[in-house]
Design a protein that fits this description.
The chain is mainly alpha-helical and 118 residues long. Helices cover 76% and strands 0% of the residues.
Length: 118
């Protein structure tokens, strides 16, 4: 829902400070208005939000690759109709580790989404 912005706030700052803020905004690819409002309201900045979303996407890709590897091991085991006890134990350990990492990742995502929703 788009709210109409009908109020203006004028602030006085030194010219160099404005240039510094503009440079910062340019680097972060955000507007000066966004920088000020998000800073005052203690919200995550738009560029940081983009970085978080990129991180989440990267994590998803990593787990996708791991799942692919698991499927490959399962195909090999099915094809050979045999997997050594040592290999099975190692595989099981890796699966347990993945479950723990996925749980930790989900907890981090919950915290991230809570921050993003501010």
């Amino acid at each position: 829902m788009n709210e109409i912005k009908d109020e203006v706030i004028l602030i006085r700052i030194k010219g160099q400070k404005k240039k510094d803020w503009k440079n910062l905004c340019s680097k972060k690819q955000i507007s000066l208005t966004s920088l000020i409002i998000d800073s005052v309201e203690n919200r995550i900045l738009n560029d940081e939000r983009r970085k978080v979303l990129e991180f989440i996407e990267k994590q998803d890709n990593i787990f996708g690759k791991i799942e692919n590897n698991i499927n490959q091991v399962a195909k090999i085991a099915n094809g050979q109709k045999f997997i050594s006890e040592n290999e099975l134990r190692n595989f099981s350990d890796k699966l347990s580790e993945i479950i723990i990492l996925k749980k930790e990742q989900n907890e981090i995502f919950i915290k991230i989404f809570a921050k993003l929703s501010r």
